Every structure is written in structure tokens, then in C-alpha cells.
Amino acid sequence: MGHEGIGAxxxxxxxxxxxxxxxxxxxxxPIKHAHHAVFVRSPHPHARIRGIDTAKAAxxxxxxxxxxxxxxxxxxxxxxxxxxxxxxxxxTPMKMGAWxxxxxxxxxxxxxxxxxxxxxxxxxxxxxxxxxxxxYQELPAVVDVAAAQAAGAPQIHPEAPNNTIYHWAIxxxxxxxxxxxxxxxxxxxxxxxxxxxxxxxxxRAATAVYDRAEGHLTLHTTSQNPHVTRLVLSxxxxxxxxxxxxxxxxxxxxGFGSKIFIYPEETVCLWASRRLGVAVRWTADRTESFMTDAxxxxxxxxxxxxxxxxxxIVGLRVKTIANLGSYMSTFSSSVxxxxxxxxxxGQYDIPAIHAQVDAVYTNTTPVDAYRGAGRxxxxxxxxxxxxxxxxxFGLDPAExxxxxxxxxxxxxxxVIMNYDTGDYGASLDAALAAARYADFPKRRAEAKARxxxxxxxxxxxxxxxxxxxxxxxxxxxxGVGLWESAEVRVNPVxxxxxxxxxxxxxxxxxxxFAQLVAxxxxxxxxxxxxxxxxxxxxxxxMGTYGSRSGAVxxxxxxxxxxxxxxxxxxxxxxxxxxxxxxxxLKNGEFSVVGTDKKIAFGNVALAAYTAHNLPAGTxxxxxxxxxxxxxxxxxxxxxxxxxxxxxxxxxxVKIVQFTASDDFGVLINPMIVEGQVHGGLAQGIGxxxxxxxxYDKGSGQLLTATYMDYAMPRARDLVSFTVSTTETPCTxxxxxxxxxxxxxxxxxxxxxxxxxxxxxxVERLDMPATPQRVWAAIQASRMPAAAE
Amino acid sequence: MTQVDVKVNGRSVSRHVEDRTLxxxxxxxxxxxxxxxxxxxxxxxxxxxxxxxxxxxxxxTMLAAQASxxxxxxxxxxxxxxxxxxxxxxxxEHHALQCGFCTPGMIMTVVDLLRRIxxxxxxxxxxNLDGNLCRCTGYHNIVKAVAAAAAGAGVARAAx
Lengths: 788, 160
What we know:
- The complex is a heterodimer of chains A (788) and B (160).
- Chain A is an alpha+beta fold and 788 residues long.
- Chain A folds into three domains: 18-139 and 199-292, Aldehyde Oxidoreductase, domain 3 (Alpha-Beta Complex), CATH 3.90.1170; 299-467 and 632-787, Aldehyde oxidase/xanthine dehydrogenase, molybdopterin binding domain (Aldehyde Oxidoreductase, domain 4, 2-Layer Sandwich); 483-628, 2-Layer Sandwich (Aldehyde Oxidoreductase, domain 4).
- Chain A starts with 14 loop residues before the first helix and ends with a helix.
- Chain B is of the alpha+beta class and 160 residues long.
- Chain B is globular, with a radius of gyration of 15 Å.
């Protein structure tokens, strides 16, 4: 066996089933006599339901039930919840309107489900859904974040006057005002952080099976956190007590945040199964995914940064309006507050920061966490400001950043966060060297000779992963704790099962978690299996999001491994008649230091289970569990350099080079880490150049509801990336890991836009920088010259 | 109802299906070959790519009835027993998959690409992946895996 422990670039254990078509995704799992659900959805962004006539649909072939919100209410099925309480500056709690899984009085976005048809086949259900007649009285709608609070705007929920959910702030306003009054320079910027659709390639799906005899429900679903799903469906929606509800998230085809949340469709399938007494399955089609998966971003922001005469930042003032859509999704309230404004210090030593955030309702799909969740928005604000400031000061953007870097740790920012460690200069140096930054002027001149505009842009990001500690997030309004659990079960022959509350939907946990065992016990990774995603198997856990599985999930496993090792050592010492302190575990064997006495790990396991010869007072068996609640967030950081070439005649932007240098602390599997960075970069570059979710302001219709209308990054839109890492181990977890899942999506959008702005010599440019927008910016920048 | 007679992964099958049954529905639901996935309904994502008489097709854009009389290979039919197809092996070796959902379609597309163009350069690879979406990998390692499969000993089989 070669090295398979921490730092080894081993191929993934889970791959074989995926490359041979043997994956086990929700829609692949056969369910006996399953019936099919098809939802009837609102074609209007805002309307009152005057009546629903289900008679024709109910009489259609194969139909076993047509259910509406009225029946849902009759059965006392609860509303969907938002699990993070935010208070406004005046101390009042956020103003949340009700979200019923099927709307029964008012629909508030295009795609809002109003009824479900359950039939023997999918085609029968589809045909019957078209026979459901809903009588709508259309109401005026607002879809634009900047217009939601205007006087006379349509009111979406009676609970939230002016469509304002909360008016929240963080930081010291007086200190910021004072800093601005003394400032030598102020740089300001209005920006839009464009709305995105997560677009995991596997659509959301659910199969619900009701066992009438046991009063037990089983839900297979596309979830990043099946235990949280069970908790919400039990404790809040009230479908079944926890011990009578099993939630299984089998292989899940990508999440990116969108599969964290508890949605209407999965809820309705469970309820319909119970009410109709048949197994019910549903898989979203792609347009349903566009209409109903929680969207991401959608901020309108005004930001100002104050500098002293030496170009040191003295203050930052940010005002953001965040669009949360028509209903408050599961964690939506936390995204533009504690996941956004707490990161507004970036990598910089900023003495005073004040941020105000208004969260608003609009007649659009609910918005919640999407890869990065708040941190990309914060990075975009800061890194666009830094680029514009450097341009106005006539400074090299790299030098302006370097001048303002935090260089001593731990560092307390004015917005809650306490960074434990980092070396921002090292990341920047590595990125600039790899990008051949110093030679850029030559490349620009060469491109100019060919008639092209070439630009280079930087971004130095920080992110916070492994959101924690539970007590702290609880005091900030979180409805859940953010610890993780693990159980290590050693079988009598010495193979090991790791049970984790994390969930893998592409991250490769079956490999990396096994690598931790290889590192600690010297056992081959093939002797280890990782069990996750089933509430009947794993006792409880918080799931996977926010790049938490390494820093939080693996630390819980590490703690459980400590306990297994301690007990096994005790047994090994007894068997070898040695003192426990003289026994060490290496290469899968226990040995007595300084002697040739040794015993294989598997033999100790067997001894634990035969229990024929255990130390006095030792229980049989070898199985230990642990819960781990982190002491702090972890703070990955890095520097990205994007180089673009633009065709001035068409505005087409080509990325010619993208360089990333990240500090993720200790790496478990560098191959998997690089893959996470590549994917994040593609999503960030997608946001910057291609992707934008568009609602028609007049009709409120979602215009980007298929892959023909929403521009997903394709292979030829991207280049091969140049990625590398630097390393300052995290100081707050024993593994020194920080997390790598979101960095690419956080750091890359401003690098791309800064590169384009640099090529064009402009300041403001909104995402996505489509050829049309870039061409228009080129024309606008040429206007004054033409007028001279 | 329509009768569909096809050979799938070397086995002859004959089934009666509703006229409107798509080939992908026939494979997944009638035959239980769930390795072929559905990621969209507009022929854009390529997760449903299979081989029809040796060429890659998107099985969501044709009716099962249209495939009658043809020979189909799905992802389940690509490996020979325990021996992976070289493209499958290259995907694993180069970490060209994460969540795995687009992977079957991606692999079927790549096998056909290397049949048509045994030694593609990077631009050609990227151009030919245009009909397949991946949200996880940023395509970086997929491109690498395709180049490796083309350069490796496996190219002969991939080009069969």
C-alpha cells in the first residue's frame, strides 16, 4: 500500500459506480407501485386564487388524487420555516410572511405550486395537471430588488410593510462617519450582484413511501442535510414524529447550496403519500428547477471606502438591499447578514466598518445560500473598490492591496470575525509569479498590435468556513447548532465504518474520510467505508454546506478515532502484557516500543468482540462516537489573477489565463482540492461573464427558465486553470484544515470584472459582462474622445 | 402503443410502450438502465447521451419508437466485465467527475469524440464537449482525462 493518508493524491473510492452507471440517485431508486406527482403552478407572479376546480383532473385516467392547499390546511400540515432569526436595528424581529407548501389564497411568484396531481404514470399525471382549472385574479407585481421598497410598490405579504423583511446593521456607524470626515480620498461604487440559478445537473427529486401499519414515512430525496430535513418536517411542518420519519439522501448530483433547503415539493410528496396511501415520486424537470430551486445573490449595493493620504483604508460604508424573493427560504435571512457583512473586512486592516442591509420581498423565486453565500457578495464589493481605488490613485492594484493587508494574527475585525491565521502576501506573491504579472505590459502591447484589448485583474478574497461555534451562532439567531457528529465502528475483523452527519454530493468524502483513518491507523483506505445520508443509520448531523465537512466533520471523526485508539491500545497492551503507555499504533499494528512484540489491528478488534481476554472492567466491542463543536470559523484566503482579451468590434471576452493561489491550511487530498477550486472558478467566471437570472420587469415572468435562455458555462467558455496552494494551518482544529469548496466561486467574479475594466479603462461594469454590455462600455468610453 | 425492438448493450429486447415514450424513458423506466440520466428537457445538458448504432445521441430528443431496429450502448454496456473502458479509467485517474451525475453522458460523448477524432487538441476537445454540461469540475479535469485517454494505450479501444 502506498501512502494513502493526509496529503495523498489518491483516486476516489466512489468513482467506480459513477463511471459505470451504477450510481444510486433518488430518481434511480425503484419503488414498488410508485405513483407520480405533477404540480400545478402559477403562471402569474402575483395573483389571488378565486377558486380551483379539480373535478376534470380527478376524473382523468390513472389519477388517484388531486390535492390543493385547502386540503393541506385541513390536514394541519405546517408552513415552511426560515431557521435564522434576524432582528432589525430597532430591535424588532424580521417580518416573515407565511409560506404554505401549496398556496391557497395568494400566489407570489411564477411557479408557485397551487395543486398536485398524483397518478399511476407520469404522463397521466401531466395530462391531468393540465385539466386543473385555477381562477386567478391577477395582482400587480414587483420583481426588481431596487423597486421593492418604493412607495406604491405592490405589497407581497401583509406582515412586511414596504416589502421590508428587516433593516439590519453591523459595525460602528459613528466611527465610520468620523473616519470618512478625516479621509484624504473616498472611492465609491454602486453595483449589482447578479441573481444566479444554482443548476445542479441532477434536478431535485423525492420519493415518499407511507407504511400505514407502522405509521412510518420514508423520504428519499436530493438533500445536502437529511437530518435537518427530518427535523424541520417533523418539528415544524408536523408530518410525522422524528422516529416515524426516515430521510435518505442517496447519491446526490450536486447541490451548491440549493439542496440544503426544505422545499414545498418534497413536503407535499410526503403528505400526499400519507393522505392517499400510495408511494409518491416526483422529479423536477429543468424548468421547474429554474422556477423553484432557491436562487442566489441578487444584491443592489452602494459602497464607499475611505483612505488616508498614504492610501491606507480608514473606513468602509456599505448599504445593501438583498432580494429574498417571495418567501423566506430555510436559511435565507442569514445570507445577506452574518454570512455577508461579517466578511467585509476582507484581507485588509480596516479600522471602522458599517454595513446596513435591507432584505426585501419581491415576486420572484425564493433566494437562499448558493456556493459562497454572502461571501462572494462581500468579496465583490471590496475587490471592485480596491481596483477602482488603485486606478484613481495611479497605483499598482497589487501594491495597494499589499499596503493594506492584515499581517499579524489573530486579527479581530470590526465586524465580529477573528481571523486565526493567514499569510495574504504569500498567496499574492505566488499568484502574481504564476500569472507572470510583471510581464503583462508586453502581452498587452502584443495584443494591441493584433487589434485586441487585453486586461488583467486581481482579487484577494477571504472566506469563513465551518460556521461556528453553536453558542455564538445561536446568540446571532441561528435556530440550529452547527457542530458535527461521527461514529467509528470497528468490525470484528478490523474493517472500519465511519458514520458521519456530513453529506457528500460530489466532494469525495468516501475517499477523504477514509484517508484520515489511513493516516491515523495505517490501514488501507479500502478497509474503510463511509456511511452518510440516512437518518436511520447516522444518529444526527448537520449536513454539508459552507465548506464545513473537513474542518467540522473530519474533526468529529478524528475525536472518535482518538477514543477507538485509546480503547484498542488498552486491549493491545493487555494482550501483549505491556504498559499502555509503551504501546503505539502504526501501519495497522500495535507494537510495544523497544521490543519486537506486535499485534495486528484486526486481531485487537477480534479480541474486543470475542471478549475472552479483556482487561478488567473493559466493555466488549470497539465502537466510539463523538460530537465536535468548533471554536471558531476557519478562514481560507487566496489571491486570483484573471487575464482577458477582448475583441473591440464585438465585445466578446476571452479568458486567456486564470491563476489561483489558495491557502486552505492542511490539504487532505490535493487532487480533490484542486477539483473543488476548478469547479468554483467555473461558477464564479460563469457569474462574471455568462449567468444572469432575468425576470421581465413588466410581466414578472422568469425569462431564463431553460438552458437555452440561461447561459451555463460550457467547456469552450473556459480555459485550463493554473492553481496552486500556500499553507498556514488552521489553529482552531486539530487537523489544521480550513475548507476549499467555495473559494473559487468567491474569489473569481471580481478578478474577471477587474480584468475587463482594466482592458477597457472603465470603472463600472455590471455582471454578467456579456458581449453586448462590454461592447456598449467600449462605445461609451469612446464617446468623449469622439466629441473632442 | 408501439412495439420497440432494439439491441441494448448486446441484448435484444422487445417491449410495447406508449407512443410518446422517449428513448431515455424507455431505457430508464422500461429497462431499468438508470445510468443514463436526465438533466434537462431541451437537449442541452447531454446527461442522457447514449450510442445509437455507434454514434452518440441525446436519448431525450428521440422517441423510443424511432430507435426501433437499432443497436444501443449505454454507460452500463461500456466496460467489459471488471475491465473499464479506457475513457472510464481516464475519468477516474484524472478526477474528471465529482457528483457523477453528468458523467455517464460525458463519457459516452467522449468515446464518440475519440472515435471520430482520435487525437484532438485542447480546443477541439472543448469544442466537442459543447453539448454536455458539468456544474462540478469546471471541465478542467475532463479535458485532461480526454487528452490522456487519447494519448494512452486505451486509444485503440476508444477508437473502435
